[in-house]
Amino acid sequence: MSKGFNWSAGDWISLCAAAILGGGAFAFRLLAIAPRATVGMCAAANAPAICVPRHAVLMLQYYQGFGWAALALGLTAFFLGRRAPAALALGLGIAAVVNYNATTGIIGAAFGLVAWLGLATGRYQAKA
Helix H segments across 35-101? Predict the structure, then answer.
């Protein structure tokens, strides 16, 4: 028989953080990167303020920043047994998939999910 989940307040906060991070990346991509009109607006001489974070996200996408960050956080969560890096790895893994960094992002999200579920089910104890 399995023990079941032992959800704490930190787990719910981490779940909300992962959902906000992944959903925010999806919404930002949908609203600021995907429309063709933003390409022309950002190429203009007087570009709007949204073009600065748009450019930063596109550079992180180009250099695989989302995927490598998700992988680093996932490995940290897996080997150290911490909830916060596990939730961030899951959220950044979703953001990596949305931004076409799925090769490393999915692996990082999987490590984070395994660590998080291991902590939630009591299979191993969190370290202080």
Answer: 36-43, 51-62, 65-80, 83-98
